[in-house]
Amino acid sequence: GSGGDLDSEFHSLTEYLMTTLKDQELTVLMSQMALACKATSRACAKAGIANLFGMAGDQNSSGDDQKKLDVLSNDIFVNALLKSGSCCVLVSEENEEPIIVPEKDAGRFCVCFDPLDGSSNIDCNVSTGTIFAVYEKKTPGKLGSVADVLRVGSDIVAAGYCMYGAATELVLCFKGQSVQRFALDPSLGEFVHTHSNVTFPSGGGKKIYSCNEGNFPYWDQPIKDAVTEFKAKKYALRYVGSMVSDVHRTILYGGVFVYPADSKSPKGKLRVLYEGFPMALLVECAGGKASTGMFNGSVQRMLDLEPTHVHERCPVILGSPRDVDFILSKYN
Ligand code: P6P
Prior knowledge:
Layout: H1 13-20, H2 24-46, E1 55-59, E2 65-67, H3 68-84, E3 87-92, E4 99-100, E5 109-117, E6 128-136, E7 158-164, E8 168-174, E9 179-185, E10 190-198, E11 208-210, H4 221-232, E12 236-237, H5 243-253, E13 256-259, H6 272-285, E14 289-295, E15 298-301, E16 316-319, H7 321-329
Parallel strand pairs: 3-5, 11-12, 11-13
Antiparallel strand pairs: 1-2, 3-4, 5-6, 6-7, 7-8, 8-9, 9-10, 13-16, 14-15, 14-16
Bound molecules: 6-O-phosphono-alpha-D-fructofuranose.
């Protein structure tokens, strides 16, 4: 089209879902997910005005103090997903136990999500995000169960994140499809399809490493050696402290994001089901790599991991093949 925002060539998320998925139930699920992202985006934008900052006085499964926006965004996603009629199991970072949807309201999909990841950044207006992964129930007909989500990450059928930054952006990939980017047009209330086939810059992109260097003394030696060499190779350090922001920049600009295991947390800090796995699928679909580092004596592809608990943690090394391979070479 001629370009410009009134162009008839406007392509929406809904159009992408309907023309690509050919699956009514998954289309409805993703439409509800997008609605929840829009509502969360609005809540984050209005937080100060609506006095939503501050504590809700409750604790979540990790023992963190829940902020009002954490609770609100979790309620928004749980309600939207239940109403979709497409879900049978919901795993949220904010709920200790999975939600098993009653048969009469259930569908075939299981959703694992972190409704507002990086929430410690909310009160200072640093970007945060929602992360999610979708599985298909293993056994049609039967009630969903936790067994439908405690399985290898490569079984994921859809993964995505929504970044509440200067723009609200939804980044999605469905199994077998390439990574797609959508930007929320607040005047329309629609996610506009802005980029198809999103990939890492060829050759690995900018020389950026992203980690919390405050943990350097607690890392194992291979990670210490890799980071020390990144400095020698004049890499830049970029770290927001919100996984969605750090991964989004890594995919678009290149480089590597690392949250290793350390002597304080032997399995790292990030969660498998709603942080590590969805980001690993997106990164791989964009031509990158995602590893947990060493597992039982050999380097492990993250999506090969089989979690045994819904809030299980895993070390995360993800980004351009150039930089992930460099780090993993230190383990030999
Ligand atoms: P640290 C935010 O709390 C989070 O879960 C991720 O979004 C982020 O990557 C990580 O933890 C930051 O952890 O220890 O650097 O503050």
